[in-house]
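Q&A FORM
Asked by: J.P.
Topic: structure of BTB domain-containing protein

PROVIDED:
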Amino acid sequence: MACNGGSIIASVLEHLKLEDVQLLLENRGIPSIGEKEELTDRLQAVLSEEICEFEWEQGDVPGCHAEITGAGSSMFTHHNSVYVFGGMDDERAEQMSLCRWDLSKEEGFEHVHYRGVIPAKLSAGHYAAVYGNELWVFPMPRNHNMRRVYCLDLLRYRWVERMVIGDPPGDTHWRRNLDAVMDGKQLLAIGGQAMDKLYSFNFESRTWSMRHCKRLLPSWTFGHAVRRKRSIFAYGSVQGDFGTLEVRQLDLATLEWSRVDTKGAPPPFKTHSSAAVMADKWIIHGGRRAGKFNVTNHTSVFDFATLRWSPLMAEGCMPVAREWQAAIGLQDCMVVVGGRVDIPEFEPIPISSDTMCSAVEILWHRPPSDAQPPTGRAALMRSVQELYGSTHLADVSLVVCGRHMPAHRHVLAPHSPVFERMWQHPMSEAKTAQVCISDLDCDTVELLLRYCYGCLQELPSDHSQVIELFKAADKYDVLGLVQECVARFRQLTGADEIAPLLQVAAERHSEELRAVCVDITANCLPDVLVTNSFRELTAGQPELALNFVRETSIRLGCPTLSCPSDEGCASPDSASRPSTSCSGSTGKDVQLPAAQAPPTPPRACLQQPPQLHHHHQQLPQQPEQVEDQPDNVIPEEPRQRQRAELDFYHQHPPHQQQDHEDQQEQGERGVLHVDVPHRHDDAAASSSGEDSD
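REPLIED BY: S.T.
REPLY: Here is the structure written out as tokens.
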């Protein structure tokens, strides 16, 4: 179905609260006092005018049919008139009629009677262009004589047959996949699955020529093309009739193709749809999805200015569902004529005839109305934004690196309970009206203030700057900004940034940041383990790194490392023994060669993070001199065990642990039992067999 803007807006407004409706009205300078039903109707009218920049209008074609199926009719303009030429009628018979609509009159389309040699019926369709005062009609591929071109004098309406030089586009698959655009004195024809050729026809010399394109992209199903300045834009689908639309650009200077990085959700590909350009909008209308008999009236819009796809938001009558129609874009509207209408589900599929559409539909573009100044709470919000950085009514100053930043207590206090307590209690900040900040830089404090005043439009793109902003927001308990930073970390954090972010999460005791680290590391654990930042974290804070790897391993669904008994746990020195064995979940031990044996993890084996095995025997007591060490220094022996366990993970991350059979000799001392996930591919099975003894 077509996108009916009014009904969509109404369905959304039904779920809004009264205060939300009032705020939306106040933002637009509309009166906002009254009952919800009254205010909702008022807001719907305003939003429809604001959002729905198009409007459908429908009328009947007087006395003629401009139907189009298959290769169809062509549509063009000349001297303030719109013309429709060719096409098929209800009985699928070719017609060479011409209809004209004088835009200065209201009569609509009228038949044009012409003289001269009337062109023979083009059984395989045609494409046409206007050059000067002549209409040039070119046969599509698969016609019997493609070098025979017909020209119509649009002043006298007289046909003339002309011969051309050179080879026109003749590939069979170009019949469906061809579009022609004007470029000065040339007509450019583009199409095909590979888009590897560009045909050009010179109207002065009546000569066809062909050039090969460069940097070809994957083959696709071609839709339509249009020229914009010195480029040709084309849309189609790489997945054929079942995919979504993709936009490509051909540079006419270099003849190189490139893929356009579009925004928004691309619409599905539809066969036999129409395409027209209105200002900066490329409007794709109607057509039929692959494998379906029913056609659609859905309309999609591609904005050349923003490179964004969006559904058409329009008011007015619902457009007719049709395919093979013709459309042309004018200055402020798009005209749609002809085409085959939908096949009712209760009727048999016609074999020798089609039901054509005689309706003329016009899609008008409505420029947005001038915005009104906000009122009520919206005006209050704007006044607060205007106070940012102003000394007007400022009653507090933030001192950062010797710089005084004016602020307002009534603005900061609602965002930060920390600031609120400063000024509610007899603290030095309340007496001096100054807040000295020594652990943050000026840029970070500015971002914090911008958020509190509602002026922060975008967070920094540098990961370290977002970390500093998170520290500031967490320090002053600005919860909204904390959530914004966490969401930003999910966008910016990569393997190299995991270790610094994990340290901040531990420093600020933030479970949200730790969850971000775990979620991201679960997708790239091997890359994280080999980064320099994580190795430095392992050397400086092995317990933090170890617990994090444990938690990530469990998130990946990997069974944990475990020692079957106290006697089975080996010391770090046992890694130099001649052989070691890995025990899979099946219970059998597989001996590994000494050169490939991983270092044996310490007694603190992985179970549930961050706790150690409670059933293991107590670790040996440290020497007396350990008691004199500071509290934040980890004794040497536990530090060695943690490093040994982390070294094991560095060399054998969970995703690389191989599948082995059930263990058979659990009592053997020096045997490492590793529970690893099953791998079902043949490569893993063969590798396990080669490593086993």
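FOLLOW-UP: The radius of gyration is 36 Å.
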